[in-house]
Amino acid sequence: MDRRAFLSSAAAAALVGYISGGQAAKAAPLGKVRELGVLRVAVYKDNRPWSWRKDGKLTGIDVDLAQALAKGLGVRADIAELVADESADDDLRNGVWKGGLLGFQPADIMLHVPFDRTFAARNDQVAIIAPYYRESFQFAAVKGEIDVNAPPTQYRGKRLAVEIDSIPDFYLIGTFGGILARDVVHFPGGTEAVTALTDGRADGALASRAQIEAVLHDSGATNIVRRTSPLPAFTSAGWDIGMAVKENSRNLGDAIETILADMTQSGALKAIFERHGVVYAPAVAAG
Q: Which of 180, 202, 226 is the C-terminal boundary of a domain?
């Protein structure tokens, strides 16, 4: 999946690491969180619209969700920004069950984790829980520049923005005999690719649906159209996003899933997405 499109350095939080010795060390993970009065939540750094800094302040869908989960537990949230490693497996090790080499302390829970059976099976140090969104890729273009629902071969000669070394990048460069390779313009992330579209530096962009919707919402651009039909030969039909806790913290995971279910039923989860300009799409696994 396009993990790099969703991805920032650790926030200091000495009180939130699991302490050794004393009565708190003997408590169950959920009890420990409540005793300390803090839920340490790992989110990805520079992962707009999920977790990123605007005017120096940490914001995003996952940031708001972390606050809501902590409130549901009756504690405060300590949100730590995790720099993405080479793989999501590495991120689970750094963010949840072991910690990072640069002093990142393991979190009680990590957000924006692929909710996938195969992925979960090879990461048995954690429990992957609480799927909360269904992500997918989408193509968008400047109105009048590209027929978004036409075969992609007709995009030839247009500036096509993508995140470098991502699934959209590999698709546009390698599919259709590589005829679009020279038209691809690379950006550090998916949101930067979509921003190039709204700024007039690109004619089309292939990015995640959340990235497209958030950038269009924030920019107020009205001249962008989005493809409604599937892209031919595109291998990713979408993926569920969930959370992860340590394997021995399943009672914390159970409590989190109860809170998330209540938020889904009340509309509070949908409202978080709407605040950031993203249309809430329930995870398939949550159905």
A: 226
